[in-house]
Amino acid sequence: MADLIPITPNTINHHEKKTKGRRSIAIKKIEDSSASVVSFCKRRLGLFNKASELSILCGVQIALIIFSHAGKKPYSFGHPSVESLVGQFFAQEKSNANFPSKGNLDLNLTPSKCAMIQKLCAELTQIKDQVKIAEKRGDELNRMRDARKTENWWMKPLNNMNLSELKECKKAMKELEAMIPSSEISLDLAL
């Protein structure tokens, strides 16, 4: 039998952790340039992952352009592509050139217009609720129709039934026969 070596603190190799691990940090500029570069690389990938998830989950088009801390190298992510979305953005900006900038856009909503918008929103909500109710009622009617199809199983010709349906039919007839009092069965047989 092999000799067992007792485990003591001296027999276990102690390795100091090389990273700081996952922890919350204050949101402020990182002064150490190497730590700043590392944080930029890690967070850039996380940002691209979130942008990808957003485009998949919500079905949106998204473009993300990030320049490195030195401003030398651009990193980009786009769905469907950065080029198409940037082109779409600039085309829209050119068509809106005659309008005031979005920061200075004044919609001139009077109280009557606000009231009308609120009324239309309420109507829309009411119509959506009615559609949901109608869909539920339709589902209920479909279930009832399907149930009625199975209610009249005895009307279905025996030649059109498969083996499992015939067995179910026989079982149901035996259950029905068991529910009828024996005196009534004997009367029917006498006729």
From TrEMBL:
Q: Where does this protein chiefly localize?
A: nucleus
Record localization: Nucleus
The residue ranges of the MADS-box domain are 20-72
Q: Does the keyword Transcription regulation apply?
A: yes
Give the keywords, sorted. Answer: Coiled coil, DNA-binding, Nucleus, Transcription, Transcription regulation
Out of the domains of life, which is the source? Eukaryota
**Regions annotated as coiled coil:** 117-144
For this record, an example GO cellular component is: nucleus
Gene3D superfamilies on file: 6.10.140.920, Transcription factor, MADS-box
Q: What is this protein called?
A: MADS-box domain-containing protein
- Give the organism the record lists: Kalanchoe fedtschenkoi
Q: What is the lineage of its organism?
A: Eukaryota, Viridiplantae, Streptophyta, Embryophyta, Tracheophyta
